Amino acid sequence: MILLRRMAKSKERQDGEISAREADQASEGRAAIHGDNADYGDRVARRAYELYLARGAGDGQDFDDWLAAERELANNRRGDAGE
Question: Measured between alpha carbons, how far is 13 from 6 in angstroms, rounded to an integer?
């Protein structure tokens, strides 16, 4: 039932804008799921973009950059936990 209401609301809002309340709810939900790692996706995206630029900004390897960024962050996290 909730899903149907959300779908109806999204169809009503054709311009793609979300309300401040919806943005807050999304942020809170993300923090609840990821805890201290709420910005994990942002950090991975930032590092993947750095890798993309470092290899000359060539297209077609975005997935590889993303996986490499996740791997680096995971290794850094393991290194921090081991200290």
Answer: 11
Helix (H, G, I), strand (E, B) or coil at 10: helix
Secondary structure (DSSP) of 23-43: HHHHHHHHHHHHGGGTTHHHH
Q: What predicted TM-score, i.e. pTM, was given to this entire model? A: 0.54
Q: Is 69 in contact with 44 (CB distance < 8 Å)? A: yes
Q: Compute mean pLDDT per 10 residues along the chain, 83 residues long, and list them.
A: 52 59 66 67 94 94 95 82 59
Structure tokens at 82: 């081991």
- With tokens 């709810």, the residue in question is 25
Q: In whole angstroms, give the CA distance from residue 60 to residue 22.
A: 34
Contact yes or no for 68/51 (Cβ under 8 A): yes
